[in-house]
Amino acid sequence: MVYSYFFFALVALNLVHSTLATQRNSPPTGSITVGPSGTYKTISAAVAAASKGASIFIYAGTYNEAVYITVDNLKIYGQTDDTSSYKSNTVIISSNGAMATKGNDDASGTLRVHANSFAMYNMKIVNTYGTGDGVGSQALALSAYGTEQGFYGCSFVGYQDTVLTDTGTQYFGHSYIEGAVDFIFGQTAKTYIKSSVIASVAAGTITASGSLSTGEGIYVIDSCTIKAADDAKSALTQEVYLGRPWTQYAQAVFKDCSLSDIINPAGWEKWSTSEPNTADVLFAEYGNTGAGSTISQRASFSTMLTSSSVAKYSISAILGSGYTAWVDSNYS
């Protein structure tokens, strides 16, 4: 009887999950389509054909190409059985560009978005250069330049410099970002990452803010899980830092996050011994939990926010009071 009870309870739970999960296995009306049964066989070809306000639907598959987007107000949808998360994504864009071969960080990106009012759903973006062995140079999965860019239920996988948000405003919701060295970085962008997983594959630093002046660019990481990637080569215990300052005006805030034991007790580190860049940084924390959240040994140049001071780093304070007009509330 007990066995039967738990069996039927499990079945009921699975039915509830299936009911709540929303599939996207067919293109929204009017969308440009990509894939074996689509109008275009490559994503780049679909992007080239798209005009402002268009939407692109991509059927399941791995697309080995680098994609460059310059058209504003574009939406891209990947086929999935569960739109609420990155875990069921079936569309992968993969390339292996690196700064060493392409000439600069941006040019190495698997996906380069130089456009405003952009939204992407349920896509996996991978830069394979250096992943697994750590050999090589900066190699971006995503290079983002533009205002009001949203990434929902997406995953970004690389090693060094996985995600660049360099200008404008970006929101990442219910997403996954993996790397090892400075793998969330940029200069003047205001970037908000919410309810996502940030995973380290090797020892290193998560953020590298390069703000050019006081109060310019910032990363706010809110209600995220910080952990070792499933394919990390070791447990990484105390081998990962929340960030280091690319410039002396670096800004990064982790609030209400779950920090695993991969986080070093110092939390934050200097850029280098010869160039610490700590004079004017804002490296702040609030309300974090987990084995890596203990603050007793935090770096002297870091800040612990209070219940009143943390309000300065709310989503409306970072992205602007009009953020609700472009951030998809289903991914908050």
Automatic annotation (TrEMBL):
<dbReference type="InterPro" id="IPR012334">
    <property type="entry name" value="Pectin_lyas_fold"/>
</dbReference>
<keyword id="KW-0732">Signal</keyword>
<protein>
    <recommendedName>
        <fullName>Pectinesterase</fullName>
        <ecNumber>3.1.1.11</ecNumber>
    </recommendedName>
</protein>
<feature type="domain" description="Pectinesterase catalytic">
    <location>
        <begin position="37"/>
        <end position="317"/>
    </location>
</feature>
<keyword id="KW-0964">Secreted</keyword>
<dbReference type="GO" id="GO:0042545">
    <property type="term" value="P:cell wall modification"/>
</dbReference>
<dbReference type="GO" id="GO:0030599">
    <property type="term" value="F:pectinesterase activity"/>
</dbReference>
<comment type="similarity">
    <text>Belongs to the pectinesterase family.</text>
</comment>
<dbReference type="InterPro" id="IPR033131">
    <property type="entry name" value="Pectinesterase_Asp_AS"/>
</dbReference>
<keyword id="KW-0961">Cell wall biogenesis/degradation</keyword>
<comment type="function">
    <text>Involved in maceration and soft-rotting of plant tissue.</text>
</comment>
<keyword id="KW-0063">Aspartyl esterase</keyword>
<dbReference type="GO" id="GO:0045490">
    <property type="term" value="P:pectin catabolic process"/>
</dbReference>
<keyword id="KW-0378">Hydrolase</keyword>
<dbReference type="InterPro" id="IPR000070">
    <property type="entry name" value="Pectinesterase_cat"/>
</dbReference>
<comment type="pathway">
    <text>Glycan metabolism; pectin degradation; 2-dehydro-3-deoxy-D-gluconate from pectin: step 1/5.</text>
</comment>
<feature type="active site">
    <location>
        <position position="182"/>
    </location>
</feature>
<dbReference type="Pfam" id="PF01095">
    <property type="entry name" value="Pectinesterase"/>
</dbReference>
<feature type="signal peptide">
    <location>
        <begin position="1"/>
        <end position="21"/>
    </location>
</feature>
<dbReference type="InterPro" id="IPR011050">
    <property type="entry name" value="Pectin_lyase_fold/virulence"/>
</dbReference>
<dbReference type="GO" id="GO:0005576">
    <property type="term" value="C:extracellular region"/>
</dbReference>
